[in-house]
Amino acid sequence: MKLLEPLVINGMRVPNRVMVPAMVTRLSGEDGFVTQAISDRYVRYAQGEVGLIVVEAMAIHGSNAGPLLRIGEDKFIPGLKEMNARIHGTSDSKVVPQLIHFMKISKSGWRQTVDMLSIEEIERIVEQFGQAAARAREAGFDGIELHNAHGYTLASFVSSANKRTDEYGGTTLENRLRLIGRVMESVRRYVGDDFPVGIRYLADEFVREGYTIEDARLIGLRMAQLGADYLSLSVGGKFEDAVHTPGHVLHAYSGYSGDRCMPGAKYPPALHLAYAEQIRAFVRGKGYDVPIIAAGKLSDPRVAEEALVSGKLDMVAIARGLLADPDWVRKVRLGALDRIVECDYCNVCKQLDGAHMPVTCFLWPKGAMQAPAADDAAAAPNWPEGNAGITVKEGPNGLTLKWKKAQGSPTYYDVYRADDEGEMRVVDGVKTTMFTDSGLLGGMSYRYYVRACDATGHASAPSEVVHYTPPLPSAAVARAETIGVA
Amino acid sequence: MKLLEPLVINGMRVPNRVMVPAMVTRLSGEDGFVTQAISDRYVRYAQGEVGLIVVEAMAIHGSNAGPLLRIGEDKFIPGLKEMNARIHGTSDSKVVPQLIHFMKISKSGWRQTVDMLSIEEIERIVEQFGQAAARAREAGFDGIELHNAHGYTLASFVSSANKRTDEYGGTTLENRLRLIGRVMESVRRYVGDDFPVGIRYLADEFVREGYTIEDARLIGLRMAQLGADYLSLSVGGKFEDAVHTPGHVLHAYSGYSGDRCMPGAKYPPALHLAYAEQIRAFVRGKGYDVPIIAAGKLSDPRVAEEALVSGKLDMVAIARGLLADPDWVRKVRLGALDRIVECDYCNVCKQLDGAHMPVTCFLWPKGAMQAPAADDAAAAPNWPEGNAGITVKEGPNGLTLKWKKAQGSPTYYDVYRADDEGEMRVVDGVKTTMFTDSGLLGGMSYRYYVRACDATGHASAPSEVVHYTPPLPSAAVARAETIGVA
């Protein structure tokens, strides 16, 4: 499988093509030091053999910003070093920190924008990125990633919403790209040419003032020209359309662009892959072979493999899917796709982040702060003779399925549905023995089964299949009779 | 060419595969009657041989809503009939009205939503659509189109943002689809089965609360089941993300979803074609051959033809491109692509609509309320020996090109640019002899020429070509030397 082939990035041998991109955990203390919980979180990905672990965004500056990691002073190095030693002692996984600079936001809904920064402040940012990169190297990271995405400082300069009018301003594309160029120079001065430096940036801002794929191709080329060792693509996550909840600081993922950034269940799989494909083709066409990595509902191993094999990407970034199951890569390697805890994109993790609570997965056992340890030998839950006793009932909110609790230790149930003659796919992962489907269309036929899963995704055989064909409404029936179909 | 092949829609022979979708003109009086200006606007499309003319949304109800057409009472029939007689007397173009119901909006930013409507009001809407359809038939239209798109009543029921909790509510997909089913039944009762009834709806709502392509495929299937004779796809244009300007009524196209609905110059061509392709494949796969029509930057004849030939669409909808040049189809038929007034997506037309002013095209002669009459024999403007005397100058806003006024009667100039070894493409249409390019990337090479165009798009030969290669910034130069490229 292409997914399991190694990739060498500026000397860093990543053992496979799977990255866990930066995800906030909200597990650090207010002081920004590595905690046991944070260290455990990232070691868990190493146990699962994730190729490239990107540790959550850590601030290169001194701003007080709640329980977020920091790398703005030397005092943060020992904790990071210890975490990296644990990660490297666990597997061949490589680990880089995402280095972030962000601006001020307030509970009033006010936020600082790039046009408010003085040239002195910009010079300080340039220097701080370099110094943080040096600390990252000292702390034993295998490389670094610059956070040039979402609503944060670097991305806000590159954005077409940049309102500055000077040489760092939104007046021209080159001016927008000036700061990231300065930052790259600074970083190379501090860590040299042989240290992997990736950049995360946006393939589309998904806000009215924002840029689209047209600029994103050029931005990608410039990142390559600047010597970025990989480009990791995201979309959206901007403050421009953030929804302010009175009394709370503005959250970058609360608007439509935030929805596109962490697309929920209503979005199709691989929904932003075409952007990655276009950027990759463009940058390759200009002679740069920088690896292109992208996120966006790629957690189905078949979808991820196809994206790699078809040359749309060089590595897949999977955030929520690897939060749900850090053993995803290991299970793919073992051919145990059936044991993967499948992310159903319920976005409880996103809601926890938005509520400033520790980020966990809904599918984990109740109260768990980390994904449970793999137990490959454990028996899966099951129903006697595979019969879950599913009942179906129509109601005002749709079709409700109920079933019996499985034997063993079921942690959650995966509900599968096939539409007409299509394939069975997970439509939801639930913790009760009930599921309501509100998205059915009369005239189609549906089949369901459920599987009972233990804490690490070990699933029972499929239960019995139940069928349901909601009726066509009278208007459609009348029409079908008139035109002689159906 | 596929573009020029006829398409029979429920007995209506559309002479080619080009539709001008409904565009507000703001040319009617406050009383909603057809004016000379409105009649002239649509006759102009017929002169240009547009296959299917969709007349701007006309209200089926009595609301007072400014200079918008109405069809809610019999008194509106004679004016519409006269307009249709003129259209039919001009060419083989077919003409349908877009029938709309909309809810109340106010200058305070408040708007009525579907959950505020009583069952009696819903029943009235069902009846009003039927009656309006009957009036349309009596007025000599060739069919009708139901406006089930953007921020209006029918689309707001189908939307996943529908907050009702009854049988017309957002609780299930079937409930959301109930009203359009009722409306289709009502319409068929009034006009029978042999009258073409198309539906316009959204392939993606592009708002946080909205549905995506996943639901849009099912919605398309239902429209087909209901006997829609064509499906015309749009996206966005919702009130949920509309930006309220104090003192003005809320405008449905002022937010991000409005930008997606009428995508400006920063978006790539054919940007929503993949949605149409998916919906068409899905509906065809279910056995329905209802023609699929879609809009979204398809005004380049080569792009439009390719969309048809590759089976992604059955007809292309071109709004702004046909506003710019109602003779688009005729010029394609004559092989005179070079004489088309090319829409540059400057969206001045969209701004005029937003400002509640008569909608015209920026490329038309100053003050013109209609596209100028074609004059195929007129000589194009030109420069002596084809030399426009282009000068280029770098400045804080990018590269500025200036050139000499052409001889003859230039109305506007098309600025063409090629990036590296790429094709020459129009990047802007300007009325002065100056253009500033703020989107260049250092390290790429650019070529430009200009063409002087008369009022109907008759263009001079390309001027001399000027070259410009903006320098790479120092950070990229340093990197290129280090890694030995460039």
What's the SSE blueprint?
The structure is a homodimer of 486-residue chains.
Chain A: E1 7-9, E2 12-14, E3 18-20, H1 36-47, E4 52-59, H2 77-90, E5 94-100, H3 119-138, E6 144-148, H4 153-158, H5 173-176, H6 178-191, E7 197-202, H7 213-225, E8 230-234, H8 256-261, H9 273-285, E9 292-294, H10 301-309, E10 315-317, H11 320-324, H12 328-333, H13 348-354, E11 391-395, E12 398-402, E13 412-419, E14 425-430, E15 434-437, E16 446-453, E17 466-468, H14 474-483
Helix pairs in contact in A: 1-2, 3-6, 7-9
Number of structural domains of chain A: 2
Radius of gyration of chain A: 24 Å
What's the total count of β strands of chain A?
Answer: 17
Largest sheet of chain A: 8 strands, parallel, barrel
**Unreliable spans of chain A:** none
What CATH architecture of the largest domain in chain A would you give?
A: Alpha-Beta Barrel
The average pLDDT score of chain A comes to: 95
Fourth CATH level, the homologous superfamily of the largest domain in chain A: Aldolase class I
- CATH C-level class of the largest domain in chain A: Alpha Beta
The two chains with the largest interface, and their residue counts, are: A-B, 62 and 63 residues
Oligomer category? homodimer
Note the overall shape of chain A: globular
Q: Helical residue percent of chain A?
A: 25-40%
Strand order of the largest sheet of chain A: 3-4-5-6-7-8-9-10
How many helices of chain A does DSSP assign? 14
Proportion of strand residues of chain A: 15-25%
